[in-house]
Please model this.
Amino acid sequence: GRGWVNRKYFAAVIPSPAPTPPVDDLEEQVWGSPEGCDQALATDNRMAKPADTLRLVTWNIRWFPKGCSSGEDCPENATNINWLACSITWMGAGLIALQQILDHPPARQELAALTSALDQLTGGSWENALHECGPPQSQHVGFLWNSSRIKLENHVDIGALNGAFSGGSACASNLRPGRYARARSEQQNGADFQILS
Model:
């Protein structure tokens, strides 16, 4: 039956979309190419942020580090580790909730290279933690953070956020759970909070 289709849905006037705001030249430089991002950092042009502010970011890095599903071969889509480290540094991020991160040995090597590059670029001490269940070739969620700015504790996989979870494995049906942590700020008067990716 078509009873749920109402004529008013077809008669509605759809307003014109709002004009797209102009892209900031600096943003275009950073996101336009790895060289542009490097140049922005070299000239100390960063995304504006008060020094005492912790910037939280969430980022789906599309099958990190391959750039495509684990069964495919697509080097043209592979994550550019240096550009990623540059953009995280440019944003002034202190804590990133990650999605679609592979956890097999090649991915772990690339994640180690990313944290090392971030250590060098930011002068910080970066760590990462992904959810612990499921095969390493599947997508994982987790966190990447600058431990000189914030500490993450009590990491737990939350199976209830996996749509196939029914009390067994938090990674039932090869799906992702949530990854929980308690965040404790290292800044004076910084807030402590709970975070879930």
About this structure: Residues 1-10 have pLDDT under 50 and may be disordered. The first helix runs from residue 7 to 11. The beta strands are 55-64, 93-101, 126-130, 140-146, 150-158, 178-185, 193-196. The first strand starts at residue 55 and ends at 64.
